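Input record (one chain):
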Amino acid sequence: MSSHREAPEIAKDPVADSSDLYAFVSPDKPDSVTLIANYVPLQLPSGGPNFFEFGDDVRYEIHIDNDGDGHPDVTYRFEFTTEITNPNSFLYNTGPIDSLDSKNWNRRQFYSLTRVADGREHRLAHKLQCPPCNVGPLSTPKYAELVRQATYSLSTGERVFAGQRADGFFVDLGAIFDLGTLRPFQQLHVAGKKVFKAEGEPVNATDRMNVHSIAVQVPLSRVRRRANRYGAADRASVIGVWTSASRRQVRVLGDGAAADTSAGPFTQVSRLGNPLFNEVIVPMSKKDLWNSLPPSEDKRFAQFVEQPELAALLPALYPDVFPNLDKLSKAKKPRADLVAILLTGVPAGLIDGFTNATGDVQADMLRLNTAIPPSRRPDRFGVLGGDLAGFPNGRRVGDDVVSIALRAIAGVTVPLVDKTFRPDAAALAVTPGLSAADVTAPFLGNFPYLGTPYDGFNNPSASS
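The corresponding structure, as predicted from the sequence alone:
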C-alpha cells in the first residue's frame, strides 16, 4: 500500500493514518500547485450508522520545504470539530441531504484552516464545512452538488476541500503480501511454480473503498521561495512536500460524568512523503519511530535506502529472473540512484531536461519541480516513461507509483549513476499489472481530482 496501515501503531489509529499524498502542478490551473493528503484508509462505503470522518482530536498538516533543509517553510493546518443537530436520534440523517445546511443531516463536521509561514500563523478560514459521506441515492441523491458547495475559494488565493473521496490508489494487496507475489509473473515465483501454471489477473484491493481527503490548491507564489527566476533548472522551482498527523501527548478518559480530555503539546504520530517509503523501505522495528520524526532526521534511515531489502528479495522470490540485480545486491554497493530519487532529489545531468534536487540534506519528501508544466498526454510511468511531470517529480493521482517503485528497486534506475550496469529484462516489465483504469470511480479533470466516493447502497462491500 502507499501508506495504508504501514506501521504497527498507526494501523490501530486509522483516523490519523496518512495513507496517500499527491503533489502536482494543476493541469487546469498551471499557475498553482495541488496538494492532496488522504487519511482514514480502507473505508467500507456501507459503514454506517457511524460513517467515517476526520478526528476532532487530530491536527492534520501539509508541509512545504522550499529551501531543502527538511524543515517546513510553509504549513497548511486543518483542525476539525463535529456538531450533532439532533441529540435524540441515532441516525446520520433523517431524510435526503440536498444541501450543506439540510435539517435532515444530523452529524456535521467543520474545520479551520491555518497557514504557518515565517514563524507566523495566519488563520485563512474558520468553520468551513465538509460534505457528508456518500450514503446512498436516497440520502445523498446529488452528491456532486454537495461537493461543489463544500469547495471553497479563499481571498488569499487558495482553493480548499476536505471530505470523503474514492480511493484512487491502485494496488494488488492480496498478492503482494502473499510472499511478494506479482500475479502477471506468479508462475515464476519460487513457491508459485508449484501452484500456478500461468500468469494471473491482478486485483485492485482498494477499489470501491473510500478515504477522507484534504485538498488545497495554492498559487505557486505561495509555496516557492523568492527568486529572480523559476526555470526548470533553478533550485528555487523545487519544493518538498510531506503530510503529518499529530495528537496531544496526554489523553484522559472520562468516568461517565466527565468528558474525555486531551492536554499537552501535539506529538506527531503519522507522516508521509514518497509513497511506499515507510511501507517497503523502513524495517518493522523502526516504522513507528519513523512516523514520529521530521524528514530532516531521515539520514538515520539512509542505509535502508542504499541497501533495500526488497532488492535482495526479488531474485530470491523469482529465481533466474533477476540475475543482474542479484549480483548488484550481493555486492552491497550503495544504491545511489534510490538515494537521489527518495532522499535528495535527482540532480541535473542524469535525465535530460530534468532535476528536482533539493540539496545534500537526506529527507523523505515528495519533491516537485514546479517549473515543469503539466503533460498534455500524461504517462502513468511518469519520469520512467519520459513524462517529466509525473512521479517521482511530485505525484499525480493517476501515476502508477507501485510499478515505478518496483522497477526502480529492480534496477531500472541504476544506469543513471552507473553506466556499466545493465538492468535485467524483467526489471523493465515488472508490475502488479494495474493502472488507473482499474479504479471504478473515474478521476476528475479538475479540483479536487479524486473521484466521487462510492455510496453504501450500491457498494455494500468492497468485493461486490
